[in-house]
Amino acid sequence: MKKWLAMAMSVNLLAVVISGCSDPTATPSEDNEKQEQAATTAPAPETSEEANPFKKFNPPIEMSTLYAIDEANTFPAGDNAENNPMHQLFLDEMGIDVKAKIVTTPSSKEDKLQLAITSHDIPDFAIVNQSKLNQLIRGDMVEDLTEVYEKYASDNLREVLEQNDKKLFAPAMRDGKIYALPAPTTIYDYMPVLYIRKDWREKLGLPEPTTMDQVLDMAEKFTTGDPDGNGAQDTLGLYMNKDLNSLNYIFNAYGVYPDTSISLSNMWLKDQDGNYYNGSTDPKAKPILERLNRLYDMGAIDKEFAIKDAGKANEFIASNKIGIYFGLFFSPLSPLVDSVKNNPNAEWEALSVPAAEGQGSFIPGAPYNAYGWVYVKKGFEHPEALVTMMNYISDGYGAPWLVKDGPTSFQQGYEKVASDPKYANKGLNNWMPLQIAGNINWGPIFKEAYEKGDKEGPAAKRADYKRMFQEGIDGWGWKKTYLEAYLKTEYESVRYPDYSGPPTETLSKTESILNKEKTEAYIAFIMGARPLEEFGDFVETFNKLGGSKIASEMIAFEQE
Amino acid sequence: MRGAKLGRSWQLHVMMMPGILLVLVFMYGPMPGIVLAFKDFIPTKGIFGSDWVGLETFAYMMDLPDSMQVFWNTLKIAFLKIVFNFPIPIIVAILINEVRKAVFKRTVQTMIYLPHFLSWVILSGIFIDLFSQTGIVNKALGLFGISPIFFMGEPGHFIKLLIATDVWKNFGYSTIIYLAAITGIDDSLYESARIDGANRFKQIWHITLPGLSPIILLVLTLSLGGILDAGFDQVFNMYNPLVWSSSDIIDTYVYRLAIVEANYSLGTAIGLLKSVVGFVLIVTSYLIAKKYSDYTIF
Amino acid sequence: MPTSTRSAGTLIFTVANYCFLGIAAALCLFPVLHIVAVSLSSAGPAAANEVVLWPIEFTMSSYSVLVSKASFLTSFGISVERTVLGVALNTTLTLLMGYPLSKTSKELPGRNVYMWMLVFVMLFNAGLVPNYLLIKTLGLIDSIWALVLPSAVPIFNIILVMNFMKMLPREIEEAAYVDGASYWVSWWKLILPLSKPVIATIVLFSFVMHWNSWYDGLIYMNDNKNYPLQTFLYTVIQEQDITSIEQANEATSVNGVTLKAAQIFIAMVPILFLYPFLQKYFTKGIVIGAVKG
């Protein structure tokens, strides 16, 4: 979350991720022009004064929210959610006194929010996930933000929020109206990274893999070739757990999107005829499952992976039994660091995930790159205050490369706090009630600063940057994360679900049942408990349980 | 005499009052909210403003695929748990009571009560190790020439494992209540039995067990009330895709439904169903006990 | 005494009994020893699950971190506070209510109404939201009383006490009544002193209930500074998918396996000491004959 600490940097912003055929920059800039025109041609004095994106509320207004503060970033003694420099900064700059209606930890955030929603006692604004957003909209608990967004959003904010053809707005839209604003974060946070035991690879004389097929072949050799040289065949080529999280990327390499990761929403895609289907029912999954089944049979995958959650399966990484791991940029911090703790000679290399042979480039399935969606409680007097906050945050903070006239005072205030030794090791952004960030790849930025030995510049003010200088193993994880892995998160494009409307009736009702069906079937195919000839049966069952109905409901929604 | 007693009964009512008031406020106070089971709950409309849907929520539940399977799984697991969780603590309490060495007795008592305080999140990790195909249990079985059993992955074995680990976790704690009841038995009864030459087994049979019978009946009756409670925490933390169809219980099922979209009315309806079934069973056993042995449990 | 003539059967029983109980106890101790061993090991071997019953690369670092961990200490304090308050309230109310309920309907008109009122709420609960709304209406959110009052009347314990008091011979009280003693006097002077085993039991039960409760803390406390220990532990131990760098950092360094183990163990310590302390009340049988005499 803290990938976007305030800094005025001359960012060499890397290619904005493009989805499909749309041009992400077209829509927002056109809109901006229109708005500018509107502003100049029709200068209604009252509205233009009111519509100041950076207005400061005077007298200050109170606005309550939920804070989810993790262990690492707890407030120092004397400070709390309503009394800390970040809170003060919001008050000083925007005249918004953010009240802490709920303070909790990230792990129980969802519980607390759910209770708040069902008891109709929500904070004035908060970041929520898709499922909660649906409840809020359906229950008519949130403000329609269409107008205030149009009126108050700054150009920079639009640039950040409306990326990828306004894709991030989709879950918050009903009948063309906006009921919540996306809180984007850099998409690179969600891009897969392939981690390989380099020392094993070199010991067996294998080249760096350039296709997914080579990766899977390597998994076999890691299993049979005794890469740890202990004389026993006790290594596992490929990491796997019962949630099948990492499986996703293997399938993606072949252009299949079963979306087996539980943290993502389901992948509903359109075939050539314009009909929806679930990514997991794609017959192209069959040969990949067969390949995985062979890997399972020959011992490259843990025989008992189907009963182990991530925590349990990670023990193999810590005990240095795993050769290949599909993760995200921060995987060196967990779980890979445990491998190095036990074997300082373990050498992990981070690579971009390669596509399969003949597939062209690797296109990962992408979740929405957002912390969630921010609503404003129905009846709150100043819904525009949310847009104001977001304007301030995006201006030079969430999207530093957009700032033209040097750091804003909000940003300067932030940096001042960040330089205070009392807060040196805190991820201050976590204390803000709200975060947004554009698509920044921190890898190159950190690397450049690190190589120059920068200790004072804007990058160096970030807590994560400082953490790279920790002694020993702790520093290893942070360095690996930012100086290596983050650089590998660049992909030419990503694949979003084709359906982006609200969940259909049958989907809400049967999604968990369909997920269960999918996971059970995929595991059975990999373990060989079910012959692959039955893949068609699985598809049939899946569609009968609700798949077909959902697909037709989606079409119906689009035609409305 | 009689009149005097009635005249004093106000004292007993006064003793009841503080507790009854708290029960009225904190337990009966929110009780009208139970109507949510028959409503389409929309938070903005509130509990009483939401629209009535009658039994639609129950119909919705029955309409879900797997609901019958899940119902039977629940009943099966919960029933087996009662069958084993009920007698074992009684036996252990009696065995402990037979121990004469005080230090041993206290040590055993304290040790067997410890697992009760470990959460299933922690325990499931430990059990996965112990019952892994390469784990300690299978190694021990291997000594007897038994080939490795996939306890966590085969539905039949998994259910047994659920029952066994549940008994293991709770038997020590459940023993306490019987140990306390045993101390309530009049010592002079044992005294006279010994004089009559009754051996230990006879003393257990004729004095200890009858002395425990009220509490045994009480515990059994109350445990029937949990006939649709198969133990969410345990199942949720221990099950896996390989055994989903055989070990998915009502609570885990509803939990997974709620992840996608919380359906508060459904949760209330399920809770109400469980309570009604439990209450009916409790009342029935109360009436049976009263009719056939003239004994009132409560 | 006929002890000398005890048969070989009795001896075999005694030996078998000791063996059986010994093994059962060892099986129960295993996970606790495992947790202690993990808490005293280095992070690497612990994460690799190499620790069984003996620490690997012994270190006390988890405990030194714990001692300085404000959130843990605060929540420990809150748990102590709620447990003391809660047990006092539970015990008082249980003994007050168990006694009248142990009387017949003749002595206490309406006894069965009271009884079924209690049995009913043992099974039926309004559910999360109505309960939360009540606590909110009463202004008890973030207050220690939200953790104490809703569970102030432990019905199962009342039934236990009632059952126990029912079993006491009626003659004990009769004499006192004749002397004109009130129910209060009889309750305080005669019944309670005889009820020590059951009092020990209900104190233990309500201590355990309060010490172990976590869910009420989670829902009734809106500021996590007010979380009792088990609620705090829940947020720490609960497995979650790691989807952000903060969670990754927390999973291995801030709250690694060894620190989790240390927290679990420390949270168990009060429970460990409580039972042996109360046990003397479980071993002393009452001798009613003496009272009768």
From TrEMBL, chain A:
<feature type="region of interest" description="Disordered">
    <location>
        <begin position="24"/>
        <end position="57"/>
    </location>
</feature>
<dbReference type="InterPro" id="IPR050490">
    <property type="entry name" value="Bact_solute-bd_prot1"/>
</dbReference>
<keyword id="KW-0732">Signal</keyword>
<protein>
    <submittedName>
        <fullName>Putative aldouronate transport system substrate-binding protein</fullName>
    </submittedName>
</protein>
<feature type="signal peptide">
    <location>
        <begin position="1"/>
        <end position="15"/>
    </location>
</feature>
TrEMBL record, chain B:
<keyword id="KW-1003">Cell membrane</keyword>
<feature type="transmembrane region" description="Helical">
    <location>
        <begin position="111"/>
        <end position="130"/>
    </location>
</feature>
<comment type="similarity">
    <text>Belongs to the binding-protein-dependent transport system permease family.</text>
</comment>
<keyword id="KW-0472">Membrane</keyword>
<feature type="transmembrane region" description="Helical">
    <location>
        <begin position="77"/>
        <end position="99"/>
    </location>
</feature>
<feature type="domain" description="ABC transmembrane type-1">
    <location>
        <begin position="71"/>
        <end position="285"/>
    </location>
</feature>
<feature type="transmembrane region" description="Helical">
    <location>
        <begin position="136"/>
        <end position="153"/>
    </location>
</feature>
<dbReference type="GO" id="GO:0055085">
    <property type="term" value="P:transmembrane transport"/>
</dbReference>
<protein>
    <submittedName>
        <fullName>Putative aldouronate transport system permease protein</fullName>
    </submittedName>
</protein>
<feature type="transmembrane region" description="Helical">
    <location>
        <begin position="204"/>
        <end position="228"/>
    </location>
</feature>
<dbReference type="GO" id="GO:0005886">
    <property type="term" value="C:plasma membrane"/>
</dbReference>
<keyword id="KW-0813">Transport</keyword>
<dbReference type="InterPro" id="IPR035906">
    <property type="entry name" value="MetI-like_sf"/>
</dbReference>
<dbReference type="InterPro" id="IPR051393">
    <property type="entry name" value="ABC_transporter_permease"/>
</dbReference>
<feature type="transmembrane region" description="Helical">
    <location>
        <begin position="264"/>
        <end position="289"/>
    </location>
</feature>
From TrEMBL, chain C:
<feature type="transmembrane region" description="Helical">
    <location>
        <begin position="72"/>
        <end position="101"/>
    </location>
</feature>
<feature type="transmembrane region" description="Helical">
    <location>
        <begin position="186"/>
        <end position="211"/>
    </location>
</feature>
<feature type="domain" description="ABC transmembrane type-1">
    <location>
        <begin position="76"/>
        <end position="276"/>
    </location>
</feature>
<keyword id="KW-1003">Cell membrane</keyword>
<dbReference type="InterPro" id="IPR000515">
    <property type="entry name" value="MetI-like"/>
</dbReference>
<feature type="transmembrane region" description="Helical">
    <location>
        <begin position="261"/>
        <end position="278"/>
    </location>
</feature>
<dbReference type="GO" id="GO:0005886">
    <property type="term" value="C:plasma membrane"/>
</dbReference>
<keyword id="KW-0472">Membrane</keyword>
<dbReference type="InterPro" id="IPR035906">
    <property type="entry name" value="MetI-like_sf"/>
</dbReference>
<keyword id="KW-0813">Transport</keyword>
<feature type="transmembrane region" description="Helical">
    <location>
        <begin position="113"/>
        <end position="132"/>
    </location>
</feature>
<dbReference type="Pfam" id="PF00528">
    <property type="entry name" value="BPD_transp_1"/>
</dbReference>
<feature type="transmembrane region" description="Helical">
    <location>
        <begin position="144"/>
        <end position="165"/>
    </location>
</feature>
<protein>
    <submittedName>
        <fullName>Putative aldouronate transport system permease protein</fullName>
    </submittedName>
</protein>
<keyword id="KW-1133">Transmembrane helix</keyword>
